[in-house]
Amino acid sequence: MKRLVLIRHGESVWNKLNVFTGWTDVTLSEKGVEEARKGGQQLREKGFNFKMAYTSYLTRAIKTLWLVLEEMDQMFIPEVKSWRLNEKHYGELQGLNKAETAAKYGDEQVLLWRRSFDVPPQPLKENDERNPALDKRYADVDRNDLPLTESLKEVIDRMIPFWTSDIKPSLVQHGEILVAAHGNSLRALVMHLKNMSEDDILAFNIPTAIPYVFEFDDNMKLLNDYFIGDPEEIKNLMAAVANQGKSK
């Protein structure tokens, strides 16, 4: 059996402030550090033995990966970073408070920007200092690949080829793989793996730092998927993520 574990980064300092983050590089809050460590402890207790790990170019995901592996005493394993695992780019929404934005534009509009399949926020202007083409970490990425805004559909377009070319073959080879990334890049992968509809993915939220396990047979047929932890607590955490974009 093959086991893929997805883990969204722990709470970031902008999550704590309920701010649209996207490709803005912020670090973990103190709570986020604790969440990541707890996720690592849970995976250690369940006996996971990863051979390879993947993460994004963003600090909050990288630190989450390191903290998880530290708790598991597995910091020695190879890790691969890819911009394709970055969070959805939120364009001009980046840096704005979600609840205040919902109060201004309405809950339904903000829900579309946050969770819809193909409705992106307003893009950054080319000369905006937040344009990722101006960030040194993306110096080796084709400028045409760097977004100024994204919908989930566009995240899927950059994420699934990386799953196909890199993560999936690694899982087939090694048997157990860890991916530490972001709410929307992981939603893109979950939608693909579970063949979810656009309506299903709209209502699906991933809480911070809760290990999400996918089990496959040796032919990579999906057998099972589940979160590690108390089901009621996870349900409440999912609801909390959903409510972040509401005005009240």
Briefly note the structural class of the backbone.
alpha/beta
Query: How many E-type strands?
Result: 6
Number of helices, where a helix is a run of at least 4 consecutive DSSP H or I residues: 9
Biggest sheet character: 6 strands, mixed
Q: Give the rounded overall mean pLDDT.
A: 94
* Uncertain parts: none
Cα distance spanning the termini: 45 Å
**C-alpha Rg, in Å?**
17 Å
Q: Numbering strands along the chain, what is their spatial order in the largest sheet?
A: 3-2-4-1-5-6
Q: Could you give the order of the helices and strands?
A: EHHEHEHHHEHHEEH
Beta-strand content estimate: 5-15%
Shape assignment: globular
Helix share, percent: 40-55%
Q: Layout of helices and strands, plus pairs?
A:
Layout (H helix, E strand, L loop, with lengths): L1 E7 L4 H4 L13 H16 L6 E4 L3 H14 L6 E3 L16 H8 L1 H9 L36 H23 L1 E6 L1 H12 L3 H5 L9 E5 L5 E6 L3 H13 L5
Parallel strand pairs: 1-4, 2-3, 2-4
Antiparallel strand pairs: 1-5, 5-6
